[in-house]
Design brief:
The chain is of the alpha+beta class. Helix content is about 20%, strand content about 25%. Strand 6 and strand 7 form a beta hairpin. Helix 6 packs across helix 7.
């Protein structure tokens, strides 16, 4: 079901899916929507520094992308396991050390995968290197796409780097190296963990563009949110994810807002992390742990003024968050212009900037 009523009839032609990375990371296009004026304008991504101003803060996700897809077998059936999120100590905080949330999918004849019924409980997935994965039960009562599973390996993140590859969906034309799924902001986590899928709004940035932004007085503030497996077909709300907002980032955000600067989140993951650390008045405090926050227009946003993000399918639950930031009327205009202007969708595609 379409989240924003005005997008109900919007059709995104299949040829507008970005099938491979742009030749230059910052060579993508940028569609800008300004809520106050209700206007939409078209730019190259390299123009971003001119669209921001001194005192603004860009909040970026530094989580690294894991090679989270691993081939295996359940009996005589070939499967591909997408490792989403390590659950210890888990959203509930107890009793689940060693377990992971996973999605088990069926390989197709294009080098990608298609959905597969979940489970069954107790099924054993045989993995490369003699390792195993035991499926225990659905992660959530909402459905059986994601399952809790117990791997035999002690260090699953290290195992993924030996045997895994980046998660790839059917709209892409071929496998890409893991480097194509890392952003300029990504840094290794002390425990080796990271994101199952790339925090893709940060992908068009280059070190040169970051230098240009900082030289104009735009600050960069890091957060961490380890992104789980997205619901490419079912568009479910996001599951709980692990995040951290440091004391220095909380200070930067609060200082910017009190001084008249704008807080612009780079990606929906940065919004989720910041809003999970904000109180009812929008003051951000240092925080870390699991967030199950789902942002909607009814809840609204408290700490974020703008959002730089990719283009999402009209049915995607992420559009609830975009509507909370920009409002339905502006979002409808932005997406109508994106289709008319032949902008490209998904993680290797073009981006849009929603400003207050």
């Amino acid at each position: 079901m379409t989240v924003v009523a005005g997008l109900r009839g919007l059709r995104v032609p299949p040829e507008l899916s970005a099938r491979a990375p742009a030749e230059r990371r910052d060579g993508v296009r940028l569609l800008v929507g300004r809520a106050a004026a209700g206007e939409v304008s078209h730019h190259a991504f390299r123009e971003l520094p001119a669209l921001l101003r001194a005192g603004d803060v860009l909040v970026v996700n530094t989580s690294r992308t894991l090679p989270a897809a691993v081939d295996g077998r359940i009996g005589g059936e070939a499967v591909t396991v997408h490792f989403s999120t390590r659950q210890d100590p888990g959203p509930a905080g107890a009793g689940v050390a060693g377990r992971w949330a996973v999605e088990v999918r069926t390989p197709d004849d294009r080098g990608t995968t298609v959905p597969r019924p979940g489970g069954p409980a107790g099924a054993v997935v045989e993995l490369p290197g003699g390792e195993r994965l035991v499926l225990e039960g659905p992660l959530s009562p909402r459905g059986d796409r994601m399952w809790l599973a117990r791997p035999s390996m002690a260090d699953t993140a290290a195992y993924l780097h030996r045997h895994g590859r980046p998660i790839r969906y059917a709209y892409t034309e071929r496998d890409q190296p893991l480097a194509a799924y890392q952003t300029v902001f990504s840094v290794p986590s002390p425990d080796g963990l990271g994101s199952a899928e790339m925090p893709s709004a940060g992908r068009p940035f280059t070190s040169g563009l970051v230098t240009s932004l900082v030289s104009r007085g735009v600050q960069i503030a890091p957060i961490v949110l380890h992104t789980g497996v997205a619901s490419a077909e079912t568009h479910e709300p996001p599951y709980p994810e692990w995040f951290e907002v440091s004391p220095s980032t909380a200070w930067q955000v609060n200082a910017a807002r009190s001084g008249g600067g704008r807080v612009v989140a780079v990606g929906t993951t940065a919004v989720r992390a910041l809003e999970s650390a904000a109180d009812g008045g929008g003051t951000v405090r240092a925080a870390r742990g699991w967030t199950d926050l789902v942002l909607t227009p009814e809840r609204g946003v408290r700490a974020v003024d703008g959002l730089l993000t990719g283009l999402h399918e009209p049915e995607a639950s992420h559009l609830l968050m975009l509507e909370a930031v920009a409002g339905a009327a502006l979002l409808e205009r932005v997406y109508a212009q994106a289709v008319r202007g032949r902008y490209l969708w998904h993680e290797f595609g073009d981006v849009n900037l929603l400003l207050p």
